[in-house]
User: Fold this.
Amino acid sequence: MKAITTFLTVAVLASVPLWLRDPYLLNALITTGIFVIGAMSLNLLLGFTGQLSLGHIAFFGIGAYVSALTSLGFDIGLPGGVRLVHEPWPPIVGLVLAILVAGLCGYFVGQLSFRVRGAYFVIVTISFAEVVRLVALNWVELTQGPLALTNIPSISLLLPGFGELTLRTKVQNYYLVLVVALIAYLLIARLVHSHFGRAMRGLMENETLAVSVGIDVTKTLTLAAVISAAIAGAAGSLYAHYIRIIDPEVFAFINTVTMVIMVITGGKGSLAGPVVGGLIFGLLPVALRPIMAPEAQWIAYGGVLMAILFVLPRGIVPSLAQRLARRRGRAAALAPVALTETGAKEPA
Amino acid sequence: MSEFLQHLVNMLVLGGTYALLGIGLTLIFGIMNVVNFTHGVLYTFGAYVMFIVVQQIGLNFFLALPVAVLAGWLLGAAIELTLLRPLRGSDIDTTMLVMIGAWIAMQSGTLWIWGGVAKSVATPFPEAPLVLGPVSVSWLRLFVLAAAALLILVTYLLINKTSLGRAMRATFQDHDTASLMGVNVDMIYTSTFAIGSSLAAAAGALLGPVYVIFPQMGDLAAVKAFAIVILGGLGNITGAVIGGFILALAEELGAGYVSSGYRDAMGFVIIIAVLIFKPTGLFARAERVG
Assistant:
């Protein structure tokens, strides 16, 4: 049943460029897809380990900058009169490096999450994102500061038998984002249903009990943070090579909030939640644009976030799943993934 | 040396308003266990009340200050009654996310009503600064320092010398026991949030005329308030006052001797450093948990 739904969703999404010719809508779908990947990675931390990272955009932005700088090259002076010169490399290497560097940053944040929990972890992650933003803004020699990195090359793939294919058109980029999103989804699904995923949920629901049965807290949380950050870094890299211009505003806190809204609305701790929430909030601005000013849209965003937390605190997907299950008269036999209670977390 | 003296004077002026911000947040955090993401918006709100009362209505500058404090108190009470009271008992992440929603809605509302163009407030103080040897400081800034000191004193007396303050301290220590002893905990929560909000609005009303007023001005103020609370330890008012001055000093020295671009990074660096090396804050009592 679940596999069929997933397959049908992918089939519908894959057919979109065949019937949708409007470049504006296609563009909205591509950026939405990139943010859905980010939201999925945030969900791995927020929904499955219960750690609310409000600096998640840092990993996305670091991925974007690493990928852009790798493919553009740079020439900077280091202390002691040494110059560090980097010749441009192919963008696909940038994507790989973006994943690695973002994952490394996730490692440090994961280590930190062992020391500080709850509200403190939230504030540390916000601070981390802001420090990275200020560095991107002020290290003009490397990042061009507010002038932005421009002319970032598009990703090109070496296909056997086809030669080199540079992904310039919207349709090509759409499929690229779809493939990466699918890989991220399958990776997270596989992870969550593994031994490691059960350890994460055990930690979230009752840390003392989880530790007493031998779950290694630091290792589990760090691994979750590394994978989450690496996926966010990949999303950032896709963003850089698609938009082809990156400035420090990519680190704006509002971008993290967008991802959080996507996850909370769709349903944290549910695999499909970020996809559903992401599609709603990615495409809502498109629908609202003719009737509402951007400021009014943001007011509506804030209102929707509050309303969802009051009315559907578990999000759309888990609530729907529960309603469906109840209709079939097996409310007790819920899908295990959809059953992560919001209030069950032990405060640190 | 004279440059250093100047930094010290600037630190005193900034530190006073930072302390106000920190006290408000630490009270709310400590007593209600709510991470108040609307703190920055309340700071912005105080500044905009000054703008409305002085520039648009045309009232006296000194009259506008109490109006801003009162308006902050009312808005805070309204937020507590409509958003926080129904969520009592839900986990800290849910209230945090609701506060983020409220913050986005209110900040965008400010942007929608007044636009993004920075506003300034006319003050009755002379343009020429007070010069004392190598140090110069504007009269407006001196007034800001005096007003902030007065407000800190009033808050201190309110918490330590009144029956409301005693009930707040009791609720901070153990809200169940306080409730059993006849303290109306719901009322204490509303008062705490309203007082904290009025202090944030006061800080905005004082610093707004020093700089310029724009809808996003509260974002950095909120992070600075978090830094101060983490420095001083949660719920610790004296710690918040000292934390306010330490942050102001770090910013002044950072801007003066490192790079002015990184002035605002100081708050974040302090947060990360304190949480890594001494997560309970610099002046914390031992029983605090991080």
